[in-house]
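Let us practice reading a record.
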Amino acid sequence: MIQQDKDNYKNELNDSITYLENLGYENIKADIDGFETPKSYLKKGSNIAVTPDIVAEKEGRKYLFDLSLKTVKPRLLKSKWLFLNTLSQLKSYRFRLITKRGHYKFSNDITDAINLDTVKIIKL
């Protein structure tokens, strides 16, 4: 999810964190009050910071999660997902998308448009 949508989707982010805790993920960092903020990456030559929505660990592996919810700026979302996918491949992390009912087709369309066929989409 992009920075402009963070206020609109706080409940979805909290639901996602609860879901991941129930699955056994540990050391959860989230870009929300009450949790430690994940590491941000600054885009070179601009003021855009890319921060994964949720970072967690399970069985010694680090996972990057991003909420896939409809937005008015899908281009920013595409570039964020491409960056997080590349980062996860370089550092041997796992990258997952979390989506809710009503947003699944949007998620599939964007992942198909940018050729992210290997990314798993978790339905809540």
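A brief commentary: Helices lie at 10-22, 74-90, 104-113.
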